[in-house]
Amino acid sequence: MDRSPNSPESRGLTRKRNIKTKTKGAHKKIKLMGNSMEEKSLCHVEQEEQKRERERKPAEARQLKKKRNFNDEREQESKRIRKMNNIEEKNLHSSKAHSEKKEKTRTEDPEEGESGAKRPCVPAQRPNPKNITSYQFHKNLGKGKFGKVMLASLNNCRDQVAIKVIQKARHIENIVAEARTLRITEDCPFLCHGYGAFQNQLNMFLIMEFIRGGSLEQLINEKGCLDMDSIKFYSAEMIVGLQYLHSCGIVHRDLKPSNILLSAEGHIKIADFGLVAEGMFGNKKIYALTGTFLYMAPEILLMSGYDAGVDWWSFAIILCQMASGRAPFNKDLPMAYFIQSGIWQHPFIPEDISTDLKNLLQELLQKNPDKRLGTTGEIRKHPFYRSVDWTALESRKIPPPFQPRSIPTVDVNAVCEEPLSFLEEPDCINTSGGVIMVQGLSFLSPGWERSAGPFCLQRLPSPPWAPTVSPPLLRPLPSDFHTLEPYHQPLFPQASSIGTPYLGASSTALPSLDPYYYPSPPWPLPYALLSLDLHPAP
């Protein structure tokens, strides 16, 4: 048989082998394709399962979060309930301990003796504010020739007040006028408020608020001079207080830094109404020579008749002292020269102050009262007060520029060791023995009568564990503040005010140095003959 490559048999075998190879390759390809499709199908299934897993996990997470939040809330509620139970148990234990302590003290009460009868707990009696024995006196704040000022508080009360005790020997008219003024000060936040007034056999008593921030005089002495913001703030509050007094027909007549007190917050309080003139309406004039020399207006020194304009002159002196630390007149001069300079010489106005303040002082220090600002014109509209919101100021919504050192509160259980003779006098006034019954003095502020307290429930006598309140000192207090207190000024007659007798007259008057000429004063100048020859002979 021919097996050559070109023979038909060889070609047939080759063809068969090729067909067989192609068939095997096709089968293999089909198998591979099937495997690939199976793999793709499995991968798709896995992807679907993973997708469903991813969709299922957030829902489970949300459910798990809700479950945890619910458990946390339950735990917090349980803690709160346990805490409340602990507080109730603690309060119950404290109440039991207090009851046991109280019962022990009641058992040991020496006043009950061996009778076994327990005295009941009764409310403390409400003290009578018009009875001097209803007050606990803690400290002497100041003394004068005819009286003193005491720090006191009503029995069973925490609020402390200043009580001015004045003998009935002299100055009754002044004290009655001061009491009438104190009745109306409650409506103005920049005046010292009066709580009441009453009398016994030999003395008169004025109850006033205790102002614990010191005085403007102390502040000026401490700082030398004040900044412009402080000057504007304090003077604006003084303007509100003065205008309120003048609207009521009252002239203060003794306005000076020692009578301008500061509250613990830093607001001013005009005080000491012992020299006020009442009923000053219209063109009414008064001629009395009274006040403090350094702050007297020229018309007072001349006794030519004056009105509320004298308060604006005193206000200007205080304004100058706040700005420069000194008065516009030399107070170190002998009295005669000083009085003459106050009448005729030009006042000293500091040069290193603002133009507006300088102009304000010039308008206030007009020697002619008819041209003096305050008497004429509207002082609130002066350029110096351009930035002042008067509505907010009157409501005390403007914060003070300075918080003063507060006088420490005295413990309500502290007792003044000084013997107080006025406590031993009878409360009822017997006029048959020549004792004076002062008319128009007594009053009691309704607001203070309601707020005087608290009147707490106490056992009689009060138990030894009764709490006492003594507010902490706001700031360290220097030693000099213990002697220079708001009420350290002497009472009537005032040391710096004019007293009698006068010691002769000046031969001639100094020539006029002012456009407004005033004649020589019609009254004798004090100390004029004490080797003070104003015009020696040539």
Calculate the terminal CA-CA distance, rounded to whole Å.
186 Å
Task: Please trace the helix and strand order, writing H or E for each element.
Answer: HEEEEHEEHHEEHHHHHEHE
The count of β-strands is: 10
Tally of alpha and pi helices? 10
| Main structural class | alpha+beta
The fold-level CATH name of the domain at 216-394 is Transferase(Phosphotransferase), domain 1
Global geometry: elongated
Largest sheet: 6 strands, antiparallel
Q: Strand portion, in percent? A: 5-15%
**What is the radius of gyration?**
46 Å
Helical residues, percent: 25-40%
Mean pLDDT, nearest integer?
Answer: 74
- Low-confidence segments, given as residue ranges, are 108-114, 453-538
CATH architecture label of the domain at 216-394: Orthogonal Bundle
Strands in their spatial order, largest beta sheet:
2-3-4-6-5-9
CATH class of the domain at 216-394 reads: Mainly Alpha
Instruction: Find the CATH superfamily of the domain at 216-394.
Output: Transferase(Phosphotransferase) domain 1
Biased composition (Basic and acidic residues): 37-108
Biased composition (Basic residues): 13-31
GO molecular function, one term: ATP binding
Region (Disordered): 1-134
